[in-house]
Amino acid sequence: MSAPYRSPLLSFPDAVASGDADGPDQGIAWHYGDPVGEQRAAVRSAALFDRSHRGLIAVTGPDRLTWLNTLTSQLLTGLGEGASTEALVLSPNGHVEHHMGVTEIGEITYLDTEPTDTAGLLKYLTMMVFWSKVELTEPDLAQLRVIGPKTSEIVSATGLLDAPVDRAVPLGAGGFARPTAGGVDLFVPLIALANTAAALTAAGARAAGSWAADALRIESRTPRLGIDTDEKTIPNEVTWLAEAVHLNKGCYRGQETVARVNNLGRPPRKLVLLHLDGSADRLPAPGSTVTTAEGRVVGRIGTVAHHHEDGPIALAMIKRSLPAGTPLLADGVDAAVDPDDLVDETPSGPPQSALDRRTFTDIRRR
User: Fold this and answer.
1) Are 28 and 53 spatial neighbours (Cβ–Cβ below 8 Å)?
2) Do the beta carbons of residue 52 and residue 69 sit within 8 Å?
3) What is the DSSP letter of 362?
4) Which of 124, 198, 336, 353 has minimal CB crowding within 10 Å?
5) pLDDT band of 344, cuts 50, 70, 90
6) Strands 206-208 and 47-50, how do they pair?
7) 266: which residues sit within 8 A by CB, 6+ positions away?
8) Which of 139, 120, 140 is nearest to 128 (CA)?
9) 134 neighbors 165 (Cβ within 8 angstroms)
10) In angstroms, how far is CA 263 from the centroid of its own chain?
11) R_g of the chain computed on alpha carbons
């Protein structure tokens, strides 16, 4: 059995490793002494996030895009050089099994995914090769992310890139860079990870841990597989419907559920931001329940963090039928759904047609 991963960035000043030995971010820093300042750096200047624990799979061979297109929710057959997107692997009933970033560069399709899901995704893909002309490997590249308004000038100062990128481009010393929301992802050789990170911080990027990453991700309602989702999650309940699903592509596993729920406009649940009682002496535990004041279970807690402006917040999967303004308890802590995420935006009650009633009931049972 291989030793647990430990990022070289844990040797940076003030680095504090995650205290959750079984958590998804073990092996990287929870924070570097000031998680609030790290969040502000990502908003006001630039922050460097260590994502080197994430998995990366390289798919090569002439059939790679058509093959991946048949297996995932995204339209990939026309993915051009330098393009990047997201994709899902769904169960036959439309539940999310795998989520991945997809980047096409140099006749290689790179799939990056959660550290806890890399082995499962690789196993599934390997099982599905059959006679397709594809090969799967795990390249020795590690991911860093720089976010903030000063990203371009800081990355340019290191010599990694000459200008901002709007498509994935190769890096001179190996690996590649791709644009991401508010910044850039850098996939660098693992042996160069520490030196690259040091160069970025020397140029002005502030090292930021998973605490800051979680807080900013909660704010943007960006889910993580297995943390903010469960075995019943369908794409329609989270932002992945817009980012990782092509609604007009050909058949793929789970498509029927996605299409039906999209046509109905009524997924059973919705991912929302919860504001938590700041006077409580603890935060809700990820995976714990959300209940009404009367004790009725109406949801599940995902990621929880202290935000630099909003205080304690969380992502939660909540029943869409929950009336807006219902007082909630998140693992016993007073909570309220953010006004932007009010869950009664569609008419209450079951769908009107007999077909819709059957579909809605079937989806709830899956």
Assistant:
1) yes
2) no
3) H
4) 353
5) low
6) parallel
7) 320, 346, 351, 360
8) 120
9) no
10) 25
11) 21
